[in-house]
Amino acid sequence: DMGHFGRGVIRVAWFAVVMPCLLLNYFGQGALMLARNGAVENPFFEISPDWFGIPLLALATVATVIASQAMITGAFAIARQAIEIGYFPPMRIKSTSDQNSLHIFIPRLNMAMMTVTLAIVVIFQSSARLASAYGIAVAVSMLMTSVLFFYWMMKKSGWPKLLAIPLCAVFVLLDSSYVLSNLMKTFEGGWLPLLMGAFVLTAMVAWHRGLEKLVDRHLEYTEPLVDFAARTSRAPLSLVKHTGIFFSRTGTMAPVPLERMADMLHIKFARMVIITIRIESRPYVRAEKRLFAETIGTNILKIEVHYGYQQAINIPATIGATLAEHGIDTDEALYIIGHERVIAPPDPGNVFDLMNILFAILAATAERSVDRFCLPATRTLEIGYPVHLQD
């Protein structure tokens, strides 16, 4: 919510509306419990008069819908950030607002959440049986928030360690006691958030680790871009009178599709553009700091594009002006991208092989680069090649 509406709005809403209402409601329920010596089944509904039962039910229903919507939009925002920093496979993201880039919809994630929700309803059958799962989820979330707060204070805030450590230790110890007490409810339904968290964490680690191994594999059978430019300038290759736009993860090594076209098809482009996409740890990168371009040799232009983790990637729109400055017609340029077919070990012998298999499954279902980078389908060529992952 803070990411969508801003800190000021959330602060005013909390202190002016939410916190006073919560205190009044909880104090009222507590007073009712004391007055009836604990003989209360539904204190929230019983503190109101009988005639207000239906309106209160409608209000509770609306609050439930709003809370679920907040969870859905929060999941979309977190998933997008994880995708941009390389911890989750790319998925199709739809923008739902022309004014706010944070208003997004992820169909695949929405379908997954719906499926999990229906499965939980079938398994637990009542909200009362979810109490243990809810308790563990909240306690672990509080502990992780305290741990991240401690990291921020130590690395980002500039607070002295003598002040940061005791302050955070209080929160960490308090939250840890909540987690330990709730872990006793693991077999009463508390296993659900632990299982879901373990699955998501495993998928994120497998994806990030797999991307790093892909880069290592590329470094093994590609050459530095400068060496490639020197080699192809002397080689008798057929010249394509177009500009070829390629993508490189490292920015220093020649892209695999570029080398494949030179070595297997014996062709080269009259001009080549090598694009490297960098995702910053900040949410937004200003336009004047978005692009860095340099020329290699006589016909290679290298462009490094920087995005914030909250910004949508649109390569044609971002590099159009830079290409025009270098005399490149964007309507004639061809985008050539690599399509890696990840091959995992057929006989897994350790946990790392299992991680490679999971990465291969995720890679097979990930969004294609042509869609993620908003490339024109009629001027984009995909070159597939296998990549073997083996520890």
Tell me what you see in this structure.
This protein is of the alpha/beta class and 391 residues long. Among the domains are: 64 residues; 171 residues, no CATH class. Helices cover 55% and strands 15% of the residues. It has 13 helices and eight strands. It has a six-stranded mixed sheet, sandwiched between helices. A two-stranded antiparallel ribbon has the order 1-2. The protein is elongated. The two termini are 42 Å apart.
N to C succession of SSEs: HHHHEEHHHHHEHEEEHEHHE
The mean pLDDT is 87
**Beta strands, count:** 8
Strand arrangement, major sheet? 5-6-4-3-7-8
Portion in strands: 15-25%
> What's the helical proportion of residues?
55-70%
- What is the terminal-to-terminal distance? 42 Å
How do you describe this structure in short?
The protein is an alpha/beta fold and 391 residues long.
What's the SSE blueprint?
Blueprint: H1 2-5, H2 7-35, H3 43-46, H4 53-84, E1 94-95, E2 104-105, H5 107-124, H6 131-157, H7 161-182, H8 191-221, H9 225-234, E3 238-247, H10 256-264, E4 267-279, E5 291-296, E6 300-307, H11 315-325, E7 334-343, H12 351-365, H13 369-372, E8 380-388
Parallel strand pairs: 3-4, 3-7, 4-6, 7-8
Antiparallel strand pairs: 1-2, 5-6
Helix pairs in contact: 6-7, 6-8, 8-12
